């Protein structure tokens, strides 16, 4: 198995668009065809395909051609990059808030 590096910048860019997030949410249910993914959106297929290209280049999804139908799959691995980054940020802010809380409690006791 090839270990891949996922760029958080690329993942966040791909998820910055509501259409792409809806596609990801739909693929969370299970794989589906491009035409089924596109059907809820009121945009031309070439515009929708640009969204899929961004999702595929970010490696959040991958596609497979089965006969005449292109099936899209969700790749959950890039989400771990975001999850790890968010966990670090959360930990840092919790530490800072705890330090501020301690400081304020000490300051309140001095007045």
Put the structure in a nutshell.
It comes from Leptospira mtsangambouensis. This is Transcriptional regulator. Strand 2 (61-66) and strand 3 (69-74) form a beta hairpin.
Describe this structure in words.
This protein has helices spanning 8-14, 18-27, 34-38, 45-57, 77-110; strands spanning 32-33, 61-66, 69-74. The protein has 111 residues and is of the alpha+beta class. It has a three-stranded antiparallel beta sheet with strand order 1-3-2. The termini are far apart. Residues 1-96 form the HTH arsR-type domain. Pfam families: HTH_20. It comes from Leptospira mtsangambouensis. InterPro entries: ArsR-like_HTH, HTH_ArsR_DNA-bd_dom, WH-like_DNA-bd_sf, WH_DNA-bd_sf.
Would you spell out the secondary-structure blueprint of this structure?
Elements: H1 8-14, H2 18-27, E1 32-33, H3 34-38, H4 45-57, E2 61-66, E3 69-74, H5 77-110
Antiparallel strand pairs: 1-3, 2-3
Protein name: Transcriptional regulator
Organism: Leptospira mtsangambouensis
Domain HTH arsR-type: 1-96
């Amino acid at each position: 198995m090839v270990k891949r590096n996922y760029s958080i910048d690329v993942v966040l860019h791909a998820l910055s668009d509501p259409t792409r997030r809806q596609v990801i949410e739909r693929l969370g249910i299970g794989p589906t065809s491009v035409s089924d993914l596109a059907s809820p959106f009121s945009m031309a297929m070439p515009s929708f395909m640009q969204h899929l290209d961004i999702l595929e280049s970010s490696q959040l999804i991958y596609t497979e051609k089965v006969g005449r139908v292109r099936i899209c799959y969700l790749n959950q691995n890039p989400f771990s990059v975001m999850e790890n980054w968010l966990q670090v940020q959360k930990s840092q802010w919790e530490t800072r808030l705890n330090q501020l809380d301690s400081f304020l409690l000490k300051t309140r006791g001095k007045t």
